[in-house]
Amino acid sequence: MAAATSARLTVLSGPSGVGKGTVVAAVRQRHPDVWVSVSVTTRRPRVGEVDGVHYHFVEDAEFDRLIATDGLLEWAEYAGNRYGTPVAPVAAQLATGRPALLEIELQGARQVRARAQEAQLVFLAPPSWGELVSRLAGRGSEPAAVQERRLAIAQAELVSSGEFDVVVVNDDVARAADELVGLLTAPSPSLCPGGSAHE
């Protein structure tokens, strides 16, 4: 994925319920100059979600078309729905030399690492397992069976944190958002003397 050398692609991932969306919303509010990719999904909108702001909500046929035409940087199926990152807006942002932020699931983060090795992968972790369980239960927007499935997936995802370049603990949303922006705007390791984060 060619881009200006000063551009930085940063991927934020983490288990369901850890607060990825909340942290990204805080980034948008506190640092409006940060560009955040808007994913496409086949999931139905939740209450308060706006098409084109939180996600681009599409039908399965449109998602199939994007896959077939190589229009997605990555895509993954999660809890029965598909999510993906449109490649064109990300490439256009990186071409300007400014950083881009993706909020995606673990499967997608692995695809980005395989396709763009210079990408910085950030894992958002809960302060504790108990806190994550509490957050998922507090959503109240999903049946118990779906919550149990998300918790089982989350346990497996927490183990994968070692695959990421940086772990940010979401114990305070504003602090986590500021830490993430600091990572976004830090000089890329590949531009620094002495090596790379991926050696």
Automatic annotation (TrEMBL):
Keywords carried by this UniProt record: ATP-binding, Cytoplasm, Kinase, Nucleotide-binding, Transferase
CDD domains, sorted: GMPK
Entry keyword annotation includes RNA-binding: no
Reactions it catalyzes: GMP + ATP = GDP + ADP
Classification via InterPro entries: GK/Ca_channel_bsu, Guanylate_kin-like_dom, Guanylate_kinase, Guanylate_kinase_CS, P-loop_NTPase
Gene that this polypeptide is encoded by: gmk
Listed name of the protein: Guanylate kinase
Gene Ontology CC terms, in alphabetical order: cytosol
Residues that coordinate or bind ATP: 14-21
E.C. no: 2.7.4.8
Domain Guanylate kinase-like: from-to ranges: 7-185
PANTHER family assigned: GUANYLATE KINASE, GUANYLATE KINASE-RELATED
Primary localization class, coarse: cytoplasm
Kinase recorded as keyword: yes
